Amino acid sequence: MTQTSTSPPDASTLATTTKAHTRTHRLKAWTQLLLRPLGVFIPVFILGTFITFLLRDISGLSPAYLQAGENATPELIAEIESSWGLDQPFLNQYFTWFTNLLSGDMGNSWYNGVSIAEQLWDRALITVSIALVALTIGLALGVLFGVLAAKYQGSPLDRAITAVTTVISAMPPFVVGILLISIFAIQLRWFPAAGYISADNGLGLWLWFAFLPALALSVDVISDVARQLRAGLVGVYQENYIVGARLRGYSPSRVFWVHGLRNGAGPTVALLGLKFPAVLGGSVVTEMVFGISGYGRFAADSAIRGDVPAVQGVLVISVVLVVVFNVIVNIILNRIAPAGQRGV
Q1: Does domain 116-340 sit in CATH 1.20.58.100?
Q2: I need a surface site. Which of 104, 109, 206, 285 has the fewest CB within 10 A?
Q3: What residues does CATH 1.10.3720.10 cover in the chain?
Q4: Tens of pLDDT along 176-227?
Q5: Within 10 A of 248 (CB to CB), how many other CB atoms are there?
């Protein structure tokens, strides 16, 4: 009876197999990371649009009152509502609107008949750009204050930072905006008091106009990031692996950057996903204070006029922006702290 012997795989074959398994594992991990937020986004998006549409139906608002005034006859009201498809059953209206929405058509404004998508695009860019600057300022100053407070825990500096962050957390963005205008625009004349210029005219000029409103929106972010990071770092520095790293003779900078900050920053990064919607919400009042025709001001004006399709468009854009931002935060969180991987 003849026996066949098989030779063990060589090193190159093992290396190739290992790399293939690694790529497959990474692809699976990234797929799960992206699909998990989408699994939350789809039902939230459908439910949010449905509730928005239902509120319009309950409110009894009609384009007839915007176009024909309060003295419109019942016949004229019925004619106008029929032209907008409001004489159809509710579910038919919702299905038609939702189907158009998936193709990028948000409908037209009851107030002026202009496409809502066209009106929202430029305004959304203004608000998102200022919101991103606000988050950048909030993250930079919050990290600085949080690190200093944690490093000098219990010192006068720590108590001063805690007191300042507590005070500014209680100040609404519009109050901060008025103070910033009074000091830096009117008295010192360092920044413009109102208005906005797009980045097409130069990044420096754009940032000059965007800085004060972004700073007004960032105070709450600064406070929460600083306090969250301080708490995270203080907790991490009590862990055994930090004590072990110190005993092994690692430099304080390596202990902080490699072991401390990476493990203590996870909750702070996750916090940014919660602060982004708050920044968007604060833009409604802040844009009025600084005279900016952005997304928030458009939402407020549309709500006051009773322009329901415009308000629906604003809510849809809000949901999309918040979910996309949280997906980005989720990816960053997974990179710096894989154990903290989470969904939106």
Answers
A1: no
A2: 104
A3: 116-340
A4: 888 989 999 888 889 888 888 887 888 888 899 888 999 988 888 888 888 8
A5: 8
